[in-house]
Every structure is written in structure tokens, then in C-alpha cells.
Amino acid sequence: MSSEALTYPIEPAKAASPGDNYLTNGFSLKSWLLTHDHKRIAILYLISISVFFVIGGLAASLVRLELITPEGDLLAHETYNKMFTVHGVVMVFFFLVPSIPAVLGNFLVPLMIGARDLAFPRINLLSWYVFIVGGLFTLVVALTGGIDTGWTFYTPYSSMFSNTYVAMAAVGVFITGFSSILTGLNFIVTIHKMRAPGLTWFRLPLFVWGQYATSLIMILGTPVLASTVALVAVERVFRIGVFDPALGGDPILFQHLFWFYSHPAVYIMILPAMGVISELISAFSRRPVFGYHFIALSSIAIAALSFLVWGHHLFVSGQSPYAGLVFSVLSFLVAVPSAIKTFNWTATLYKSSISWDTPMIYAMGFMGLFLIGGLTGLYLAAIAIDIHVTDTYFVVAHFHYIMVGGAVMGYLGGMHYWWPKISGRMYPEGWAKISAVLIFAGFNLTFFPQFIVGYWGMPRRYHTYAPEFQVLNVMSTAGASILGVAYAFPVFYFLWSLKYGEKAPANPWGATGLEWQVPSPPPTVNFEEVPVVTEEPYQYPLLEPERV
Amino acid sequence: MLLSLLPIPEQASTQSVAIDTLFLVFTALVVFFTVLVSVVLTIFAIKYTRGSKADRSNPLDGSLKLEITWSVIPLVLAIGAFSWASYVYFDLVHPPADSMEVTVVGRQWMWKIQHPTGQREINELHVPVGRPVKLTMTSQDVIHSFFIPAFRVKQDVVPGTYSQLWFEATKPGTYHLFCAEYCGTEHSRMIGSVVAMEPQDYEKWLQAGSTNESMVQAGERLFRDKGCSGCHAGNSSVRAPLLNGISGGPVPLDDGTVVPADDLYLRDSILLPKKQVAAGFKPIMPTFQGQLSEEELFQLIAYIKTLE
């Protein structure tokens, strides 16, 4: 990349005194709410999505508590339906989709590519405000009566039959979509135009490749979701027939449009997590990522394939069997780039030197859960098996292994790895390890039984269920209790560490990457001087060949 | 009790064996890869923990041979699994020609079922074992899904159109019937049972059920009462297509295309007569939207299909 393209949209730094950093650059509320600093915006996102995570988690707790018994003895039907809807809508649109991109991506992309900010700092702040406005709409809906359509908003139930605040929730999701689009746009432009001299595409950290692939999906897919939920609201409010056959519409059309975004959305959640895992495995094994090019390009392959597989959500909808076959084979193909990543991560550990810090434990946890989540996707790609297991707990288990086992493990692993950089403090390693192990155990106890109860035939979104499913449901709820407690740990010890944590050096893990070459926490301008990159990523010093 | 700990639920249809076999083979594949990666990870994790004594000379940063190996093997396995699964699927997708036909109407939150001989049931479906049964289904309101886990069959039931599902029960018994597509407040109460009976028991059950008229007889009555026969009978003065022998055959349309006269075509012709106009006729038929219930439509269609 030529150096004349390196123009930075922010003013030169004020003379920085030692110890000056982005956290000490103003303490007023205004200095946070009107900041253009990508690092501060990342913190704003961190706080907002943590609040949403708690809301989504509370809704999930009520769902799991209700399911301890087959009868509906804790909640009314309506309340139960509203709880799983709030859980789904909040977790998908207000936690998982923004989690790694908007928090870690916002914080790290400029630091990793040697830039002083994202390409459009004001748009970055705008995207946070848009997110908050969309979130407030949804929260108002949740608090004033709720919505009971499920996060999938299937028509004509959502457009013509539900008596809840569907239109308002649709507006909330619609608005939030623009936040994703703006963030994606910002990342793409930034990664294209603002890489430091010498930082060629194939010298980029794999985290940045993951963010790039994710951003592509965000800007290509989100507009479709936004128009789809807008159409639901239009049909609901103005009775203009789009999806309801009674008005001349087609209910299956909604499913095509919805999954055209929402299947790729799963990759919006998992691709950034895969990027995090590449960074963690390399840093804690002291080895360059094995097959760098293959991991980088497999992210792009997954992003491309993600747009061609939506029809596997419609195998029992009455879609033509021939269309079903095409979607089936394309879905099977997603296994290839996923396998490439898994095998390359495994091979990275060969002749490495592994230190078992918390982020590495999360990385290993991710590998195990992603393996199960990914491989169980094969059952769902096979139409003959999918007919039996679709809309059962088998599907619920599968996508939680990917979206929680994969995406959330990646997010937490990344939060621990970069916490010293973000906060300038070390987290308490002992507590962190305990909670990582508890999360892994609790997760499996929660979701593994759901594969079995799903194959037995328990449909999802059931408030009451047949008595023979109870044992497995009790196991699930027990697991969820462990998971709930384990998720609370990091909230407390991260906050604790802000005051009592050991001060973090610039590079506590001895990792490569430009973000570790600036002080922790980084100065507002990130780099006093624009760094020049002269080598491939992950160039750890050769290990001592310790011969046996 | 021990059996219930196995992940395989009761198998009670011809489909269930084929699908479970596929499921078990997939499971073997999943277990193989999970164990393979876990074992290799564990070995590396132990052997290469920092400070351990292990040979770390000549490390590898990448290898085209390995990349090709672990791309091609999953690719071949994926295509193989896809082919087999699709073969099983296509074997199951078309109902046998001699299937017994039953109609299902879903609504919030119940299943309404009618047998060809006229018997009606709600949230229960009685069927004989050893005979293929084909369900033609529609919904009065939102999308539902007809799911019989013990038969491994499921099909969405969509308003405004017909969907089909077929099975052949192999074992007498009472099995769960679930609505699998979320359909509102009492979705989890939209349940019932499928009772598979020996053929002679099924006959007895049919005879015990009170019924005034078969579906075809009811359809014939509607054909007269609703005025269909005024135009579509041989002695009519209005120029409308005769419906004798129409069922299943090709219908040329005035836009030059030819469509098969299946159940959905007949339904659309009654409710949306301007959608597909038969070649050579004027679009003068009024719509019957709102004048016929889903059950009555099924009866009319059953009658029209008997016209020869």
C-alpha cells in the first residue's frame, strides 16, 4: 500500500504526557457520549451489550425454570412465549451480532492495522446511537407488554395474528440494522485504506480477516432483514397484503427473505469468534498460525457460502424438493472451510510451547464446542434427517453450540486476552480459570441433553411438554444454573480489576501484533508515529528445541 | 427404562428405520471426527505445554499437502453423506399411489381431521398399520406443522395452500402428534395422538364412528347447494368448463401454459378463479372466497375428483 493513502481524519495529538491514555482523556459524561475515539466507542458498546446480555439471560432463566416440570406452573402461556422471544431478539440482535465486531473489533481493528482511528469516527459514534435507539424501542416493547412471535417473526402470525407489540419491535430491529451496516462499512473502508505501510493483506492478523468477512455479510445481508421486518410492520399496520394469504400474500416469502439475512447472521456471530481464536492459539502457543492463507480465505469462503444456504431452514415448509437438494448440498459444503480452520488450529499446536492462561482455556473450549456445533449442522443439512429434527430441541442445541459455545466462548476468550490492553489492568487469573471451566461444563450440561430430547421429538418453543422429556429438561436447567453463575463471575472480577488489578504492561502475553506495541491502555492517538510493518504476522522467536 | 436412555425413540413407521440408520451413520462420523480432533489436541496440549521436554526442532508453518488432505477428505465425505441422505429423502418424498387419503385442517390450536368415509376427529388420527396414508393439509390461520416423532415425519401446514405428508405405520400403538411450528399462545397445547391400529380394528373403528355422509357425498351436496352445478353441469346454459375427468389431467390455460389439475389447482380455481383461466373460456366465474370453509373445500375437491 502506498504511503500517500495514509491520511488520518483526526487532528494531530496534543502533546501527550507519559501515562496519558484514552481513558484519562476527559472524565466528563460528555467526553464519553460525544467521543470520536474508536476505543471509547468500544467501551460504550461493551457497557450496552452487557446490559442486553443480562436482560436476555434473565429471560432465558425464566424459560429454563419453567421447563423443570412438564406442566406450565410458573408462567402463563403468554408470558412464557414472551420470555423466549425477548431472549432470542435481545441475544441475537442486541448481544451476539454486535458483540465481537462492535466491542473488540472497534477497539482493535485500528490498533491492529496501525491506524489512529476508523475511517469514519463520527459514523462510528452514530452507529452506537442508532444501536441505542433501536435497543430502547425493543426494551420499551419488552417492558410494556412484550412480544410473542419468537425472534423469527414468522408470518402471518406476526403480521396479522399476534396481539403483542410486533410493529414496534420490528421498528427496533429495523433501526438497529443500520448500526450494523454503518459498522460494517466503517471496517471495510478502514481495512482497505488505512493499513500501515508494509501491512499487506496477507500480513493482516486473522482477527482482521474475520472482521472483514463479517463486515461484508453485514452490509450485504442487513438491508434485506431491514426491508423484511419493515414489510411485516407495513402489513400489520396498513393491512397491505405481502405475507398473509388472506390478503393475497405469501407467508413462505417471508421465510425466504428472513433467512436470507438470518442464516448469514449466524456467520456474523461466528466469523469474528474464529478470528479471535486464531489470535489466541497463536499467542499462547508461541507459534505462527498454521496455514495462515487457508484460514484467512476460508473466512471469505464461509461468508460467500453463507448467502447460498438459507433454504435449509425451509425443508419442511413446502419448498420444492429440488430446491431443497440444492440448498442441502451447499449447506454440506460449509463443512469444508470449517474443517480447514479446525485442522489448522490443531496443527498450530504441533511443536509449540503452550501456556495455559485463561484465554487459551477459552480457545480450547471453543474448539470442542464448535466441533460439536459444526458437525451437528450436518444432520440439519441432510433433508431426510432435518425433517425429523427441525423445529425440535435438536436445532436449539445445535445453534446454541455455535452461537453460545462458539461465539460467546470466542468473545470471552478475546475479552480476557485484550482486557489488559483495554483497561490497563490484569484480571485475577485464578477466578478467571474457574469461571472458564465452569462455563464449559455448565454449557455442555445445558445443551447436550437437548440434542437427545430433540431427537426424541420435543418441539421447541413448548411451554408444556410430555412427561417423558422431563429428566433431560431438568439436566438442562441444572446446567443453565451453573452457566448463569459462571457468566456472572467475569462481570465482577473485571470490575474488581479496574481498581485492584495488577497494572498491565504493554505486552503482558509477549504476543506479536501492533496492538501490543502501544502502552496499555493505549494513548488516544494509538500510535505517536505511524508504524511500519516489515514482516509476516505471528513471527514468534524460534523455540528452544528441547530434545528429550 | 434402559431403552429410554438410548437416543433412538420408538420406531413405528417404514420411514423411521431408514432415517434412524442415516442418523446413526452420521453420528458415527461425528463421533469419529470429534474424537480424532480431541485426541490430537489432547496429545499436543500435554506434550507441548510450556516447559515440557519435547522435540520442538524443525517446526512446520504450513503444508500444502496437509491442506489438500484435510480439505479433500471432508469434501468427499460431505458429498457422500449428501448423496446418501438425498437418496433416502427422495425415496420418502412421494406418497405411494395406493395411499389412503385423509384431510387435515389446522387452526389455533387444534387439528381437525376428516377421513374419506366422512368420520371426523379432533386432535386424534386413527390409521391402519401396513397401509400408506397420505395427509392433505391446510391451515385456517397461521402456519402450523404436523409432526409425528415416532414416524419421523413432519410437514408445515400453511394457510392458502395445500401441503402433503405421508407415512406407513408399522406398529399398533398410540403416538404423539405435535404442532412443531410456533403458532401463538397455546402452541404447546396443539397436541394430540396418532392411533395406529390393525386393519380389522381400524375397520371396526370406522364403523363405530357416526357419520351421515362420506366426503364425496358432502362434496356432491355442496356442488349443488353452492350453485357450482348451475354452470359446470352438462345441461347448463352458461359456458363453463365441464369438470368430468379433470382431476389429475393437464389443463391448458388461456395464457398458453398447461398445468396439472391437482388439489391446489382445484382449490385456487374455486377461490381465485381469475388466477388461472382455462383456455377457451371467459373469466366469468365469481370467487367463493369466504363462502366455503377449508373442510367444505376438501369435500368439494373430493367430489370433483370423482367426476368421470
Q: What's a quick, concise take on this entry?
A:
The complex is a heterodimer of chains A (548) and B (308). The longest helix of chain A is centred in the first third of the chain and has 36 residues.
What does this structure look like?
- The complex is a heterodimer of chains A (548) and B (308).
- Chain A has 16 helices and no strands.
- Chain A is mainly α and 548 residues long.
- Chain A has a single domain (32-517), classed as Cytochrome c oxidase-like, subunit I domain (Cytochrome C Oxidase, Chain A).
- In chain A, α3 packs antiparallel against α7, α6 packs antiparallel against α7 and α7 runs antiparallel to α8 (251-285).
- The longest helix of chain A has 36 residues, at 77-112.
- Chain A is globular.
- Mean pLDDT of chain A is 92; it is low at 1-16.
- Chain B is of the alpha+beta class and 308 residues long.
- Chain B has three domains: 2-40 and 63-93, no CATH class; 100-208, Cupredoxins -  blue copper proteins (Immunoglobulin-like, Sandwich), CATH 2.60.40.420; 215-304, Cytochrome Bc1 Complex, Chain D, domain 2.
- In chain B, 37% of the residues lie in helices and 21% in strands.
- Chain B contains eight helices and twelve strands.
- Chain B has helices at 2-5, 14-47, 64-93, 199-208, 215-225, 228-232, 263-271, 294-304; strands spanning 100-107, 110-114, 120-122, 124-128, 132-139, 144-148, 153-157, 163-168, 173-179, 191-197, 250-252, 258-260.
- In chain B, the strands form three sheets. Chain B has a five-stranded mixed sheet with strand order 3-2-1-5-8, with helices on one face. Chain B has a five-stranded mixed sheet with strand order 4-10-9-6-7.
- In chain B, α2 (14-47) runs antiparallel to α3 (64-93).
- The chains are: A mainly alpha (548), B alpha+beta (308).
- At the A-B interface, α3, α5, α8, α9 and α10 of A face α2, α3, β7 and β9 of B.
CATH structural class of the largest domain in chain B: Mainly Beta
Cα separation of the termini of chain A: 46 Å
| Helix residue percentage of chain B | 25-40%
- CATH fold name of chain A: Cytochrome C Oxidase, Chain A
In whole angstroms, how far apart are the ends of chain B?
55 Å
Give the biggest beta sheet of chain B: 5 strands, mixed
Q: Count the strands of chain A? A: 0
Number of strands of chain B: 12
Helices and strands of chain A, in order, run as HHHHHHHHHHHHHHHH
